Amino acid sequence: MQEKRKCRVCGRTDDKCLQCKEKKGFCPLAAGISCYWVEDDLCSACKTTVISFTSIKGGTGKTHIAILLAKCLAAAGKKVLVIDSDLNNSLSYFFLTEEMWERTKKQNIAKALSNEENNLCDFAVPTITKGVDLIASTPYLADLRTLSEKRLKRMIETLYGKYNVCIIDCPPTYDNIVLNAVNASDYTITPVLKDLFSYNAATFFSRVLPRDVDNFSNWYILLNGYNKRFEESKSGRQNDFIDLYQKDELPLTPMETWFPWTTMIHLIVDYHKDLSRVQGVPNTVYNPVLYTAVSELAACFFDEELQIPEVF
């Protein structure tokens, strides 16, 4: 008789899913979708999906997109952990108040990575956004430039059963900190603007990531600043760059996920406003096109249909 598989995190077996059913709101069963085996001893309800945003070019929107994706997924009921691995601390500044910052002196990504036996959950702090926890960045991350490029990957399992998704905001460089994030990720997203420097950054990654990351897959380019008015035009700067990516067979995310060109994203981030697809909601930014792009991006990472509210 064949031995039943058993999840190493929750104890679920092939014919008994009581443990997952008790996690209503966390397990895919809450959405009417059965668990499946991610590995022989790991069920999908316990697996943490890891998404990193990285580019060697600054200013492409990595942090803005990471913030919006985290808020969207948390609003959809997912338990989200964001990791700030950028010395600029932008992600940390957005999600934390001054009072919350005090805890990050002892709970930050540098301290977490200093010992491979650490549990990443012990270094996460609650944020101003319900459903989102954060492992903050710190200047001391610069002291870990000789760190093994796979340490974070070996530590990610400590998140299993605690978080549905982990989003990593990377610095605009290429070093062992970035490689730690990419090695640990299920998906790696490189945002690009409609300029030659962004294109050069993307082509750089297309060469070095397959060389430097074991079993590298699921790397995608996300266009930030797409203008739908030029969609049917056969010429123009936007179409020229899209043609470049397609000609080089660089993997673009679906068009529905491309972020529109809008300054409203700065209102959301700088003034801590929510994004809305309906008009008239106080303290929100009404932009249905941006709302759709964020929602479609969020849907790319989950098999079940996400229940995303009208405001997040």
Structure, described:
It is a single chain. This protein is 30% helix and 15% strand. With 312 residues, the chain is an alpha/beta fold. The protein has helices at 18-21, 62-75, 90-95, 98-101, 109-113, 151-155, 176-184, 196-212, 237-247, 264-270, 288-299, and strands spanning 37-39, 42-43, 49-53, 80-84, 125-126, 132-135, 165-169, 187-192, 219-226, 259-260, 274-276, 284-286. The longest helix is centred in the middle third of the chain and has 17 residues, at 196-212. Helix 2 (62-75) packs across helix 11. The relative contact order is 0.15. It has an eight-stranded mixed sheet with strand order 5-6-4-7-3-8-9-10, with helices on both faces. The chain has two domains: 1-45, no CATH class; 48-299, Rossmann fold, CATH 3.40.50.300. Mean pLDDT is 91; it is low at 21-32.
Relevant terms:
312 residues, alpha/beta, Rossmann fold, 2 domains, eight-stranded mixed beta sheet, two-stranded antiparallel sheet, 30% helix, globular
Average pLDDT, rounded to a whole number, is 91
* Integer-rounded radius of gyration: 20 Å
Write the CATH fold name of the largest domain.
Rossmann fold
Coarse structural class: alpha/beta
Could you give the order of strands across the largest sheet?
5-6-4-7-3-8-9-10
**Helical fraction:** 25-40%
The low-confidence runs, each spanning 5 or more residues with pLDDT under 50, are 21-32
Order of helices and strands: HEEEHEHHHEEHEHEHEHEHEEH
The level 1 CATH classification of the largest domain is Alpha Beta
> How would you sum up the global shape?
globular
Report the CATH architecture of the largest domain: 3-Layer(aba) Sandwich
Strand count, sense and barrel status of the largest sheet are: 8 strands, mixed
Q: Based on DSSP secondary structure assignment, what is the total number of beta strands?
A: 12
Distance between the termini: 50 Å
Number of domains: 2
Proportion of β residues? 15-25%
> Regarding quaternary structure, how should these chains be classified?
single chain
Per DSSP, the total helix count is 11
Give the CATH superfamily of the largest domain: P-loop containing nucleotide triphosphate hydrolases
